[in-house]
Amino acid sequence: MNDGSMSEITPHAAADRAARESYGRLLAYLARRGVDFAAAEDALGEAFVLALQTWERDGVPANPDAWLLTAARRRLIDAARQADAQRRLAERLGAGGAPGTAEGELTERLIDEPGVIPDERLGLMFACAHPAIDAGVRSALMLHAVLGMEAAQIAPAFLLSASAMSQRLVRAKAKIREARIELEVPGAGQLAERLDDVLEAIYGGFGTAWEHPGGEPTWLELNEQAIHLGRVLVKLMPREPEPLGLLALMLHCHARRDARRDRENRYIPLDQQETARWDLALIKEAEESLRAAFSFGLIGRFQIEGAIQSAHASRAFTGRTDWAAIVTLYNELVARWPTVGALVGRAAAVSFADSPAAAAALIELIPLDRVNTYQPYWALCAHVYRELNNLPRATAALRRALGLTTDPTTRDFLQSRLSTAGESFE
Amino acid sequence: MKYAVLVLESQADFAERTDPARLGAYWGAYSAYGQALGQAGVAAGGNCLHPSATATTVRIRDGKRTVQDGPFADTKEQIGGLFVIDVPNLDAAIEWAARCPSASRAGVEIRPIVEMPTQK
Fold first, then answer.
1. ipTM for the complex?
2. Contacts of A251 (CB under 8 A, 6+ apart)
3. Buried b (16+ CB within 10 A) or exposed e, A179-215
4. Does position A299 have pLDDT exceeding 50, yes or no?
5. Which of A41, A128, A276, A348 is deepest in the core (most CB within 10 A)?
6. Is the separation of the CB atoms in A383 and A372 below 8 Å?
């Protein structure tokens, strides 16, 4: 793994990472050779647990895939033998059954045991983001199937209990089986759209974690897992620019993780963050990804978002933010992908590049029913109307933003803005 | 579907209500939350309760009536109030519960409300 932090890895973390890599590769490998998805997951899950224990103690083996496959194979064969025993019993009781054995079928499918397991996770990733899979579960499914994360680890980020998350994953996997979703890369005609769904699913996992900073291990770990999925995708699709764009976007955001809160855990807005606390290694990797993406000459929305974050990052080198450039980028984004996030982001950039009045004009074009519970819109309104000296409107917007905030440190920050405005609850 | 969003508070949380240094932030946060619920069109009622120390518990057992000062359960976290919200499903209720100021403190309990048939 080339994420630049190998020197600090503990035996547990090394075992964890290697086992996760192997998990996803082997799941894809087995599933594409006709082994039942659920059976493969059960077997691999058990092998994974065993691997964690053994590898932490003895070190990661030279060929982790082979080790895990051997362990999983044993379990698959045991399960197949049990199925056969049950069937023979059923036959004896007159219930009948198809000829052949489950164990025989399994051994046939797993006949080729190559020294190196091919990395077929790309098909697995496309399956996880298939249109037939509920959009709300794709991020979690990808983290689970490709990286072997447990429902309990994923659940809090998606505001679900462990058992609720588990149920949704079970349903999604059943859908894969029932709808016979292939673990395949789609053909050229559908690739762009389906790839966008994959990227959206990866970014969904990252973004959910991003809203809750503050060093809680769960969130940071999820950020890093999402970035890892992004790196895997880039590795498996080296000629596609958008995966590189997404990776750049996530790396730039993650590079600022230590600057988002001060030493007393108070919220720091982006323009006030100490650039010395930004992770330069991640910024460098982000910029390399972006350069590589642009070399294909095929602009897409994740490349634009990555470029916007790149513009923010250059403050570390130039000492100022090029807001005009950011506005240009947002105009590109809004022209083809007018999401609420893009519309609000553009208005924010305009308030700095141009004037608060120009920003207010853009804000007023955003339909209210699209921002009913979208906190950043109200936070922006508070800023813009304060600049325009429209105190009643600014205060109302600040209150609304406060009421929609989930993070307590952001709440404190907005509260202090309210107090400065002279508003307080008597 | 209607849900009760039960605000849980510790004694320290209750104390903020009247602490001059904290009451602005305390009431500001809950007031903003209630307003946001209203503006989003999901508010369906609710009340703020006085702190648990003001509670009185009444029990009638074997014909004997006992009245005690204090809340029913002797837990560190007590109910400080509730918001009633009307949302399409549990996911939406959880999203709103996560915005409640007490979510990042003592906690929030969500419970679906039984829809009683209306009397004729």
1. 0.85
2. A227, A282, A283, A285, A286, A289
3. eebebebbeeeeeeebbbbbbbbbbbbbbbbbebbee
4. yes
5. A128
6. no
Minimal CA separation from B26 to chain A, in Å = 9
| Cα–Cα distance for residue pair A34/B6, rounded to 1 Å | 49
The answer to whether A406 contacts chain B (CB < 8 Å) is: yes
Residues in chain B predicted with pLDDT less than 50, given as ranges, are: none
In degrees and rounded to multiples of 5, residue B68 shows phi and psi of -125, 145
What pTM value is reported for the model?
0.86
Report CA A143 to chain centroid distance, whole Å.
8
As a whole number of Å, the end-to-end CA separation of chain A is 56
Cα–Cα distances (Å) from A217 to A86, A143, A154, A222, A329, in that order, read 45, 16, 12, 8, 33
C-beta of residue B68 within 8 angstroms of C-beta of residue B100: no
| Contact between chains at B28 and A424 (C-beta distance less than 8 A) | yes
Cβ distance of A418 and B41 shorter than 8 Å:
no
Task: Give the model's confidence band at A336: pLDDT under 50 very low, under 70 low, under 90 confident, else very high.
Answer: very high
**Amino acid identity at A392:** P
- Among the partner residues A159, A407, A425, nearest to B28 by beta-carbon distance: A425
d(CA A179, CA A132): 8
Q: Is residue A168 less than 8 Å (CB to CB) from chain B?
A: no
Strands B56-61 and B64-69: antiparallel
> pLDDT tens for residues A113-154?
666 778 889 999 999 999 999 999 999 999 999 988 889 888
Residue A426 has pLDDT above 60, yes or no: no
Q: Are B18 and B84 in contact (CB under 8 A)?
A: no
Is the Cβ–Cβ distance between A286 and A247 less than 8 Å? yes
Give the Å distances, CA to CA, from A83 to A27, A33, A70, A80, A101.
21, 19, 20, 5, 9
Q: Minimum mean pLDDT among A176-180, A259-263, A374-378, B110-114: which range?
A: A176-180
Beta bridge mates, B110: B5
Using a CB–CB cutoff of 8 Å, tell me whether A212 touches chain B: no
Q: Tell me whether residue A57 is exposed, middle or buried, using C-beta atoms within 10 angstroms of its C-beta: 0 to 12, 13 to 18, 19 or more.
A: exposed
In this structure, are residues A284 and A318 in contact, taking their beta carbons and an 8 Å threshold? Answer: no
Per-residue pLDDT band for A205 (boundaries 50, 70, 90) equals: confident
